[in-house]
Every structure is written in C-alpha cells, then in structure tokens.
User: Fold this.
Amino acid sequence: MTPTPGSGAGRARANAAYTLDESIVPMHHHSGRARDDFLCAIEPDGPRPISVAEANHRAVHGCGIADLTSAAKADDGPAGLSRRMVLRGGAGALGLLAAPNVQPRMVYSAGPTDKDILICIFLRGGFDGLSAVVPAGDPHYLNARPSLGVTAAKGLIPLNSFWGLHPQLSALTPIWNAGELALVHATGNTDPTRSHFAGMWSMERAAGYGASAAQVSSGWLGRHLASSSSTQGTFRAITLGNKAVASLSTSFPTVAFASIADFEIWVWEGIQNEVRTMIDSAYRTVGGPAGAMAAKTLAAVGGLADLRSTPYTPDNGAVYPDTYFGHGLIDIARMIKSGKGLEVACIDIGDWDMHADLGQATDQASWFSRKARDLAQGLAALRTDLGSRWANVCVVTMSEFGRRVGENASGGVDHGHGNTMFVLGGQVNGGQVYGSWPGLAPEDLDMNEGGYNGDVTITTDYRTVLAELISDRLQNGALGTVFPNFSYPGPVGVFR
Assistant:
C-alpha cells in the first residue's frame, strides 16, 4: 500500500505500485481469554497498528479502488452484509480471508523442489537460552542463578561434559542422539536494543543496525525468495501468523490467511460465490498489483480446497501438543506432504518474556517448563509425522534477544543479549553445541543498557547460521542480497 495521501511524499507515491514492505496485514493479540483484532501497516520505518477505516482509506485513495458501499444482500442472508466487507482488513490483505488463531506463515514455489524445506520458528518475547541449554560446566552459572539454575538434582539432561538440556525439553533428546539437532550458543542479533518490537523488526530484516540498515525495509526470507525462487505459481508467497510478516516482506505480493481449515471467504455460506465474484470483478477492474493480489488470493482459496475437505491424521503415531503451536505444526506437516511446493514456513511461539515467575525446572506447571515442553513435543511430533520427508526439512529457531545471566528478585530474568539457536533436520550435523563460549565470569559479560556487564556476549552473529543454511541447504549463493551489510565469515558447520 502507499501512504495515506496528505503529505507531499504521500501524494507523490499515491499511484505507485505497492509492495509487501508497505502493506496492511491483519494481526491480533490475546489478553486473557479475549482476542483483540486489529490491522498493522508495514512501512519502511517499521510496522504500526492502524484502524479498518484507515486501511479502507488507503485502499480507496492509495490504490485507486472504488469505494464499494452498495449493499449486496441475499434474500435470506445476513442483513448487515455489504460490499465494504470486501475491503475489511485492507486491499492487500483481503481481510475477508483473515480468521482467528492465526499461526504459521508459509511460502510456496510453483511446484516440488529438491531444496530443503525451511521451517523458521520465532520464539517471541526473548527466549532464555541459559535455562534451555545450560552451561553446567561454567563455574559462574550457579553463582548468577542460585535459585533458577538448572542442575542435575533438578533433572538436567547431560549433553556432554559441559552442556545440559532443560528436563522439559526431553522430547528433543532422541533427535540429539540421532545427530539431527545442533545447538548454537552465544549467538544472536548484534543490534544492542532491548526493545522487543525493535529487536524483532531488526532481526527479521537481518540487515544489521545503524544508518545503512535503516534503508532496508524488506525481510531476509523475502530477499532470499526474490533472489532464488520462481515467480510463478499460485502459492508463490503465502503468509500466516499473529505478527507482521517482516521476515517475508519483499517486492512480491503475499497472500495472508489463518489456517488450512479457515482459508475461505468469511461471509455467510449462501453468498460466498457471489462475494468471490464481487472481489474478482472489483480487483480485476483496478488491475495492477491489487488485481494480481486478488487473483492470487482467490486462486489460493481454490488450491487448498482439497486439504480443507480432507480430515488429517498424523502418521507414525505422532501426537502434537493441543496448543496453537502444535496446531500450526500440523498445518505445516500437511502442506509438506501435499506436494504443493512448500519452500518456507514460519511459525511463532510467543510468551517467553519471563521477568518474573520463570519457575523451577522440577515444576512441570511452571511458566518456562510449559513453554519448553510445548516447543519440544511439537518438534518431536513433526519429525515423527514426516517420516522420511524429515530428511529434507530444516528447522531453525530465532528470538529477538536472550535474557540476563543473573536472576532478579522476582524469580525471573530480564532482557539480555546473547542467546541460543536450535537447528534441526535430516541434514543437520547434530549432536554438538557450536559457537565460541565466552564464559560467564563478570569480566566476560556484555555490557547492558544500564552501563554494567550482565549479558552473554555474542560470539556468533545469527546471520552466520542463516547464511550457511541459505547457501548450503537452500542453494542460494546471493548472500550479499539476502544479508546486506554483513560479511559472511564462513560456515559454522551445522550442516553435513
């Protein structure tokens, strides 16, 4: 979308073709049991929430779409349905397709591919890598975490003589023992921000920070796809998620939907076909990017009809957790098995911001224990479900920053810096912890925003891991395009 006309810049760009970098996407967040839906405009300087009214204003005045206000009612249908519903959620997002419980984001090629399928998991909220993958051999670990430290007495799972795994991640141990799980410690985003919002935005752009990075508004996955993949096919770019799709943003349009089961025109069933025709007619009249977007969306609705109508049963006795994350992984598994050309799937698992009440490793109901178990059991179920297809799948985790080394007085850990990445898959050189460990002695820690040392020092830029993945497993040598402002130092060694 273009900016709302008004400023000189807005008027100058009012008729320009929009890109996903400047699009409108549906978002929601949960507050207790309630869900608040809103829209998010992704613009060059970052995403921001907007109202439906502003989204429609942009659609009408920014993209030249007619203001569709005339009624379109079936005799026995809902009295309140009007054509304005076609624009709900913004022209680019086709909000009638936005549904609750949004989980993974997926990107598809024109057909089957011999490249690995990438599943990128963003652990939103600041994942505590020191609770998950424990440097038990570091003598300063328990000094910093006398209460929260994970020890053998609390069920620590030894990985080698130095490292151990949180007991609630035990579902990952068969994958580790099979050599299909690698861990990278003291890694992360070198941007020193401790802001969740800024950290996510920075990490998903993967362009570093500072003046040069500020000029980059697209995401690393979007740049990868734009520089390596076919531009044809109904499922060129499909996004699902409860956050702005920053990592997938680039110059090609991306269709947004909630889940395979929910990917349908969300109006009364008796007039679905009429509304499809209305959308198709309205956007074809406009033409250009908006018309192409509508055509892709409607084609995608039809393209997933076979999956929507077929009940899914995981293979090999796989049991996914009954959570948003688990349900999202089921959809990813279905798409991988469908042969529709899945290239990339992104899925979030949030709620890692544990400033207080992180909990003991021995307490299965504690905050970190519940989240860790959801993550591990979901990944283990996915591997089991995929069977032989796992050989060509790569899973990588990211988080906007790690947590402080020392525990606080509230039983939690505050925003930090260095963190841990999980890399899983059939071609992973696993059973090892990678990265240069900086140590947890006070003089070895990174300085936080308060001006004193307290964070794990980053010794491996997270883009190094992603660059190895992009070049070795996704067969894209355009690393300078995918990761601007970054000099790839060579592989970490996490892939065979």
